[in-house]
Write a structure and sequence with these properties.
Blueprint (H helix, E strand, L loop, with lengths): L2 H44 L7 E2 L2 E2 L9 H4 L2 H9 L1 H4 L12 H13 L2
Antiparallel strand pairs: 1-2
Helix pairs in contact: 1-5, 3-5
Length: 115
């Protein structure tokens, strides 16, 4: 092998490694919201929110349909609502849920993604 071939091969590997690192970091950055929304969807199911609410064609239509809630309310508003619904609307029928701060955040991200 000539030095030129080795040098060109080294450059190719260096460029490939840089591209892989860039792709990995972009996936990780964008994947955080996706994984948080996925966690929120699990909280939604684990807490039985579908027992009163619908999303798409699943759930029970006792309480408001949440299929497009993200187009109506921000993540911050949804987080505040989930922390204590009666503070937002004293006549709300939704009970205060016993959720951790992380669960509230994940559920708010999930609901905000429903558009």
């Amino acid at each position: 092998m000539t030095r030129a071939v080795v040098r060109d091969g080294s450059r190719w590997w260096l460029a490939a490694a840089a591209a892989a690192a860039l792709a990995f970091s972009a996936t990780t950055a964008f994947g955080q919201d996706g994984s948080l929304a996925a966690q929120g969807k699990r909280v939604f199911n684990d807490q039985g929110c579908y027992g009163c609410h619908t999303t798409g064609k699943s759930g029970t239509p006792i309480a408001p349909d949440l299929s497009t809630i993200g187009s109506k309310h921000s993540e911050a508003y949804l987080r505040t609502w989930l922390e204590d619904p009666k503070l937002q609307e004293p006549r709300a029928h939704m009970p205060k849920l016993e959720l951790s701060e992380g669960e509230v955040r994940a559920l708010a991200v999930y609901l905000a993604s429903l558009k």
